[in-house]
Fold:
Amino acid sequence: MALLQALRNTHTMTPADIYIDNEGVIRTAGKQRHNDVRARMKQGGRAIWNRIEQMLRLRRTQGTHTGIHWVHSHVDEETRRAWKETCQLECACGGQGRRECDPTHPHHLGNEQADKCAKRGMRGEPEGSHRPQLRATAGEEEFYLRHESGEVCQGDIVGFMKKHEASRRVAAMREEGTARTKTHPEGQPRKLRWAQAEAWGDKSLRASVRKPAAVTSRFKVRAWAGVLPTYSDISKKCMAPGPDREVYGEDIGRVCPSCEAAVPETQEHIFCSCDALSAVRRVAVRKAKELWTRSKSEVEWQQYEWVSSEGAKRYAQGGWKQE
Ligand SMILES: [Zn+2]
Ligand SMILES: [Zn+2]
Structure:
């Protein structure tokens, strides 16, 4: 936005050198995408970038000089002064000939000053935000996406659609689940449990559990939704006419075929208590515990784990609860 403001406030025939401490902004400003609608569809802050690009293009076609230079930020901290090997941009201060920033250089002093002004500006009232020119949609494409809540998609269109589609589905699960508790008060419906787990669970933890490719997504999603084809589940489906009954007939039992417990083979039974899998489970529990211990979170692990037989009891009794 600051780059756009600088361009808007400079006559297009006036040569300009602009100093910016954000590498990402400099890189994006260097891209010329007026003919690449696909690339623009993924750009965050699309409307603003469209305008910046058009301003820069206009200046180019008029032969007006526009220099965009990088200033390394916060070089008052000594550790930040030396230029990193990986750094591709050169700081506008010139690095004193030894790739090390000079904090007393006018560009650095100016950058600190601009930083302070920006912070002060952020606390103030947005000036002129009623002006159509400063609205997020000014500079948008001829067609743009708007969610029914009024939110305009300003970044990756695919990501925007995925995000809203996912939240629509979770909301539907919560609604259907809640409606079902009214007609079937005996147990908490799966859909509702899932929606609650989604709301109360930790998003980043969920993402890292989902990532490893060693286990197929198909398995993970089914396990997560509680619809793995267990004996208990299949036998229930076989009671009514349908594909399951065609395949398995009527005599498939609910009971776990792997152990002596003579209990229904449910997902909870497989993951938490089946004796036939106790060795696998012991190793998994030990490994998980080691990870938690390594991150110094043993206490949390004892509280929240549901993979040991103790934890399994809590899981079976209470399911998800909000802390
Ligand atoms: Zn510098
Ligand atoms: Zn079993």
Notes: Residues 288 and 294 are 10 Å apart (CA to CA). The pocket of zinc ion (ligand 1) is lined by residues 72, 75, 91, 93, 101, 108 (CB under 6 Å).
